[in-house]
Amino acid sequence: MARTKKYTPEETLRSLYNLQFIDSRIDTMREVRGELPVEVNDLEDEMVGLTKRLDKIEEQTGDLNQLILEKKNIIEESKLTVKKYLEKQKNVRNNREFDSLSKEIEYQELEAELAEKRIKENSARIDGKKEVLDEVKGLLKAKEEALEAKNNELKEIISETEREEKILIEESEKASKSIEERFLTAYKRIRGASKNGLAVVPVERGASGGSFIKIPPQVQLDIAARKKIIVDEHSGRILVDALLAEEQTTKMTRKINKVLSA
User: Fold this and answer.
1) How much is the average pLDDT of 193-206?
2) How far apart are CA 13 and CA 159, in angstroms?
3) Rounded-to-integer distance, Cα 178 and Cα 22, Å
4) 239 Cβ partners below 8 Å, 6+ apart?
5) Phi and psi at residue 254, in whole multiples of 5°?
6) What CA dihedral angle connects 28, 30, 32 and 37, to 10 degrees?
7) Is 203 exposed, middle or buried (0-12, 13-18, 19+ CB in 10 A)?
8) Could you read off the pLDDT of 43-69 as tens digits, one per residue?
9) Same domain assignment for residues 139 and 121
10) Are 43 and 95 in the same domain?
11) Which of 128, 160, 192 is the C-terminal boundary of a domain?
12) CA distances from 182 to 20, 100, 153, 179, 223 (A)
């Protein structure tokens, strides 16, 4: 529903400053959490990566154990075949048969030696995998402990500020209703483009709040007159005079504290 009430420039400036006061307080509250939410997400992502790495190592270890089992079977089969050929050699009728069996025996013994070599190689690989596995498990445990600590810290901060933040958000929505749509849209645009979230600032020592660039005396007089909405040509922020800022800060501080203590 479109707003039909018209507000004077001074009423609009006071409402915009009130909204900025509340939104800045919400920003400060969220800054208390700092990088904790990001750190929690990063730790969760790292744990997913480590878990996948563990699964891969265990899969590779399983494949190597399967290869070792296959080579052990080859060795056992070769032993049985050699034993069978040795028995046959006892009953050969000529040297040709004896030599043929000898070659088969030699081949089976080479097969067994090669299988034994592969077993040693794969066993060494498994030992290497175990070292990496233990290292990754250690990292995963450390990440789990860090994640638990970060989550507990974040939950504690949220529990301490959750009610206050909810109330402030409600107050921000209420404050927005007393601002014409065009000014509210401008406020949100300026605030969104500002690194510190400031869209409305007072004139301090002849300069825009947070800026060292002086504002011309005539512009300062216009700001103090509160007859129109004036935007700083350098920062793009909406400007209010210091007295208005002081009055609204006192008023809003009392109001918010009263609401929070209710």
Assistant:
1) 91
2) 34
3) 14
4) 200, 201, 202, 203, 208, 215, 223, 230, 231, 232
5) -65, -45
6) -160
7) buried
8) 999 999 999 999 999 999 999 999 999
9) yes
10) yes
11) 160
12) 16, 101, 41, 8, 19
CA-CA-CA-CA torsion sign (12, 18, 23, 28):
positive
Residue 59 identity (one-letter amino acid): E
* Predicted model pTM: 0.59
Question: Is residue 137 pLDDT above 60, yes or no?
Answer: yes
Q: Please, which residues bridge with residue 201 across strands?
A: 239
Q: Average per-residue pLDDT in the chain?
A: 91
- The separation between the first and the last C-alpha atoms of the chain, rounded to the nearest angstrom, is 31
Q: Looking at the structure, tell me whether residues 28 and 125 fall in a common domain.
A: no
Is 194 within a domain?
A: yes
| pLDDT tens digits, one per residue of 149-159 | 999 988 888 88
Encoded amino acid at 261, one letter: S
pLDDT at 10 over 90: yes
Tokens 């018209």 map to which residue?
A: 6
Which tokens sit at 233? Answer: 């040509």
CB of 22 closer than 8 Å to CB of 191: no
Single-letter residue type at 34: G
Phi, psi of 57 (to 5 degrees): -65, -45
- Regarding whether 89 and 20 lie in a shared domain, the answer is no
pLDDT computed for residue 4 by the predictor: 59
Domain final residue pick, 160, 195, 219:
160
Residue whose entry in the numeric block shows the structure tokens 């800045």: 24
Count of alpha carbons within 13 angstroms of residue 88, beta-carbon side: 18
Place of tokens 């939410």: 37
Tell whether 146 and 215 lie within a shared domain: no
What range defines the domain where residue 141 resides? 36-160
